[in-house]
Amino acid sequence: DSGVTQTPKHLITATGQRVTLRCSPRSGDLSVYWYQQSLDQGLQFLIQYYNGEERAKGNILERFSAQQFPDLHSELNLSSLELGDSALYFCASSVGRKTSGNTIYFGEGSWLTVV
Amino acid sequence: AQTVTQSQPEMSVQEAETVTLSCTYDTSESDYYLFWYKQPPSRQMILVIRQEAYKQQNATENRFSVNFQKAAKSFSLKISDSQLGDAAMYFCAYRSPAGGSEKLVFGKGTKLTVNP
After folding, report:
1. Do B45 and A106 touch (CB under 8 A)?
2. Nearest CB partner across the interface for B47, out of A42, A99, A103
3. Which among B43, B102, B108 has the least Cβ separation from residue A48?
4. Cis? peptide before A8, omega within 30° of 0
């Protein structure tokens, strides 16, 4: 158990709909990351938050958004869903301070299927 | 931008034998971090081992060890005494130094099969 909690574990929804994925980081971790894993694109970095603020942005679509709340949990919002958004969405966390090489720990992922 | 390449889409090994998974990366940074993650059929991403680029000594974790060749930008993973539970996808990942982008850049992965 990495200590990173993601809900829901599985989600099936229709095209055009909107879903919210939730993540609770490990206790004490300030940084939260979102990754998407699909068969054709591999593991893609979406976005990172540090202590409530956006720190880095990757290949995140405009239809997707995220935020990190004062209690440090994070939500990833996916809207106007398309079939191609079907993927495993990982949340990960790390201490995130400006000390070197903090290891990033992953949650179990949220399986999203768009039908 | 940094890139990570795993040239072996699939590998197989006999139980109790040793296998080496290859990884190369491209970067202009001098200080960085490298990781191997394991993804079993459950799909959870599990950290196997990490290496700091400024350390010359290769990292080891029980049956897992790395061969880090900084000049060659190579970071291979050796699994000794392979066990059935080692069967999984293995991902090599690169991370920039502190203060830079902290995201992980992953390779495409190597699927390891362990034969009894």
Report:
1. yes
2. A103
3. B102
4. yes
The interface residues of chain B toward chain A in range 45-84, judged by CB-CB distance below 8 A, are: 45-47, 50, 52
Three-state SS letters, chain B? CCEEECCCCEEEEECCCCEEECCEEECCCCCCEEEEEEECCCCCCEEEEEEECCCCCCCEECCEEEEEECCCCEEEEEECCCCHHHCEEEEEEEECCCCCCCCEEECCCEEEEEEC
pLDDT in tens, A29-85: 999 999 999 987 789 999 999 999 998 898 899 999 999 999 999 999 999 999 999
- What is the least distance, in Å, from the CA of B51 to any CA of chain A? 9
